[in-house]
Design a protein that fits this description.
The protein is α+β, with helices and mostly antiparallel strands and about 260 residues long. It is about 25% helix and about 25% strand. The strands form 3 sheets. Strands 3, 4, 5, 6, 11, 12, 13 and 14 form an 8-stranded antiparallel beta sheet that branches. Strands 10-7-8-9-15 form a 5-stranded antiparallel beta sheet, with no helix packed on it. Strands 1-2 form a two-stranded antiparallel sheet.
Length: about 260
């Protein structure tokens, strides 16, 4: 530590020659500045308590945002659907959870599509319940949180579109598309295809739908009395894009048209 000495004019100085009065003043300013800084940061911050009403409003806002997001995905991207039977085996099997495109364009031959079942295909029971539980389920299905009613949605393959003639069957059990035998590699192996005979020219704005497992599918063949078994393209809700669940079956659902030959 420097020893103070007199500078000859009465003011003490340290051994470096700097006045101790000046040092003391500078140290005082530094100390005040540091204290002021510590005091500023240490100042108490008022905490605004959440009231029960505020909690309710915040939770309601979170739920609203989640519902809007789910509705946006449902409307503009994809919607989930459950496969409840083996009509499309082995492409899709019961228990599969699939994603269906929300952009419903005009269906093309070979696409696997989801569609609203016409009333003529599955008549509504006279004693069907229409209570609040059913309405809640329909609302949840609309936003994609729950699966649609099993009887209101079906998944099948488009085998013929407007203007095409589809008939069953050749001597070897093949479909005929515009008079030419159709090779269908997507069919369930070992399952016959000639359970029902038909010969249909698909009307405008309609499609003819069949399952890949012709032994179990109750498709257009079984509803020939209603518009020759065809359905309106307006009833098609979208194309099945992929299997999303179970994870072991995760894969896209390809468009397969088969080939004439």
């Amino acid at each position: 530590m420097a020893r103070p000495v007199n500078d000859g004019e009465g003011s003490p100085v340290d051994s470096s020659g700097e006045s101790l009065d000046v040092l003391t003043s500078q140290e005082s300013i530094s100390t005040e500045t540091a204290d002021a800084g510590r005091g500023r940061h240490a100042a108490p911050v008022s905490v605004r308590r959440r009231t029960p009403l505020r909690w309710v409003l915040e939770i309601g806002l979170v739920v609203l945002v989640a519902l809007v997001a789910a509705l946006a995905v449902r409307t503009f991207i994809v919607t989930p659907a459950s496969i409840t039977n083996d009509a499309m085996a082995e492409t899709l099997v019961a228990g599969d959870r699939v994603l269906v495109s929300a952009w419903a364009s005009t269906p093309s031959r070979g696409e696997v599509v989801a569609f609203d079942v016409p009333e003529e295909w599955v008549p509504t029971p006279a004693d069907a319940q229409d209570g609040w539980a059913s309405r809640v389920q329909q609302a949840l299905a609309f936003i994609g949180v729950a699966a649609p009613n099993d009887e209101s949605l079906m998944v099948l393959r488009v085998v013929a579109v407007e203007g095409q003639r589809i008939a069953c069957c050749t001597e070897t059990g093949q479909l005929e598309l515009d008079g030419v035998p159709l090779v269908e590699p997507y069919l369930r192996p070992g399952v016959p295809t000639d359970q029902v005979a038909f010969d249909v020219v698909v009307p405008a704005d309609r499609v003819f739908l069949l399952g890949d497992d012709r032994a179990s599918a109750r498709d257009s063949r079984y509803h020939l009395a209603f518009d020759d078994g065809t359905i309106s393209v307006d009833d098609v809700t979208g194309r099945v894009l992929m299997v999303a669940w179970p994870l072991g079956s995760l894969a896209p659902v390809e468009i397969e048209t088969g080939s004439a030959g």
